[in-house]
Design a protein that fits this description.
The chain is mostly helical and 443 residues long. Helix content is 71%, strand content 1%. The longest helix has 39 residues. One of its GO terms (cellular component) is membrane.
Length: 443
């Protein structure tokens, strides 16, 4: 097994492990194939546990700095403990407890993720690699917008056919899709949210290498993909990314020009692309004032949020249980018997981070999440400027992903929960790395 220490030019050992970035990049690149991504996560977790034990027997904590290890573990605990506590009186306690136990596999993998940004060289590899992956996804989606086919998904689908005899999605999924699906395919319409959440990594790398022109080119390409991907929640997320990232690169005046240009581009797309026009029209129904128009504009979110509020009110201590929203929904449905905007069947989750935490894990869960957020903020507040610079891409990605004034995917689902936990670890590992001076990040 390769050494887990690197040496700087001055001979001082750096925390980290040189193969950690490869594990993280492989995990992200394999997201379109969930089974393989999960295998990378589990094997990486086992490797991280071995490396940590080995490092301690050798007389030190060399995979991670002590503060990075502590913050990563605290943030995971703020995520996992609500799940564990909510499991005792949910619809199926034994199954819920098994699910909570299975989620523990994420913790050692998060230590590995944090180790992938624990020194300057590993941090450069990880952040650059993630930016390249996002750039490839964006380019693939732009090709789909022109040709109607995602080359990446086509290759994945063909490989799936060769292995199992059937494709990644049912045949009717592609026919019914009304937006860009990209590398994830027509039966997994999360492209907009994924690109928006990870876009700070691409914009940071573009501005680092090519200054303002690079940032502008990357921002325009990502913006087109996110609008055509159709998720209005990702529009809000990306607006935050542009605001928080752009002012440092462009200044406020030029950034205002970027937003003006973006509004004009959105208007052009609304006139020329029926799917974009439909989403703009649906959004404007909020101004009608009628509660049914508002619920339609929100794609049924109003009905879901009322149900989530009911669950939080009836189960205030520890909620109805993580991922048990669908079982509790019929008992809290504010419009039983009326067909929902999303179609048949119950709602699957609350579509909003605060309501998801309150309805599924109760006040205890919300307090634990707030405690984790407070620790993350405290670490940022007391970090020096060099540490903040090197952690800023991960910090921005995490902030826009959990921004509470938006709608969200389920944070306790396998996919979105894994993405969020990875951002936790990237933030903690880069902020609290041992090397406080990183010229590449400061550039």
């Amino acid at each position: 097994m390769a050494s887990i220490t690197n040496s700087r030019a001055d001979g001082v050992p750096e925390t980290g492990w040189r193969w950690a970035p490869a594990w993280v990049l492989a995990y992200v690149a394999l997201w379109p194939a969930p089974g393989y991504a999960e295998a990378v996560l589990v094997i990486g977790a086992l490797v991280a546990m071995y490396m940590l034990v080995r490092a301690r027997f050798r007389g030190g904590t060399r995979l991670l700095s002590g503060p990075a290890w502590a913050l990563t573990s605290v943030m995971f605990a703020a995520y996992w403990l609500p799940r564990f506590i909510s499991a005792f009186d949910t619809f199926d306690p034994p199954r819920a407890l098994l699910d909570a136990a299975a989620d523990l596999r994420h913790l050692p993998f998060l230590w590995l993720v944090a180790a992938s940004v624990a020194n300057s060289e590993s941090r450069r590899r990880t952040f650059t690699g993630l930016a390249i992956i996002v750039a490839v996804w964006v380019g693939d989606a732009l090709l789909q917008s022109v040709t109607g086919t995602s080359p990446l998904f086509a290759m994945i689908d063909q490989a799936k056919h060769a292995i199992s005899g059937h494709g990644m999605c049912p045949a009717d999924a592609a026919a019914s899709v009304d937006r860009l699906s990209g590398f994830l395919g027509p039966c997994n319409l999360k492209l907009g949210q994924v690109i928006a959440s990870l876009s700070p990594l691409l914009l940071h790398e573009a501005s680092r290498r090519f200054k303002a022109p690079g940032w502008l080119a990357a921002a325009a390409a990502v913006g087109i993909v996110i609008v055509l991907a159709g998720s209005r929640a990702s529009w809000i997320t990306y607006g935050l990314v542009l605001l928080l990232s752009g002012w440092r690169v462009l200044g406020w005046k030029r950034l205002a020009g970027v937003f003006l240009f973006g509004a004009l581009a959105l208007a052009v797309l609304a006139l020329t692309v029926p799917q974009v026009r439909d989403r703009i029209d649906r959004t404007t129904r909020v101004l009608a004032g009628d509660h049914r128009d508002i619920d339609s504009a929100l794609s049924g979110r109003g009905r879901i949020w009322l149900a989530a509020t009911c669950m939080a009110r009836e189960h205030p201590v520890n909620g109805v249980g993580v991922r048990r929203f669908r079982q509790a929904f019929p008992g809290c449905d504010p419009a039983p018997g009326r067909r929902a905007e999303w179609g048949d069947g119950p709602a699957l989750h609350a579509h909003q981070i605060v309501l998801e935490i309150l309805s599924e894990t109760g006040v205890i869960g919300l307090l634990l999440w707030l405690a984790g957020a407070a620790q993350a903020w405290r670490a940022w507040r007391y970090a020096d400027e060099a540490a903040r610079r090197q952690a800023r891409p991960a910090m921005l990605a995490l902030v826009v992903t959990v921004f509470p004034l938006n709608t969200h995917l389920a944070f306790y689902s396998t996919f979105w929960g894994g993405l969020t936990l990875m951002l936790f670890a990237l933030y903690a590992g880069s902020l609290l790395a041992n090397d406080r001076v990183d010229p590449a990040a400061a550039a």
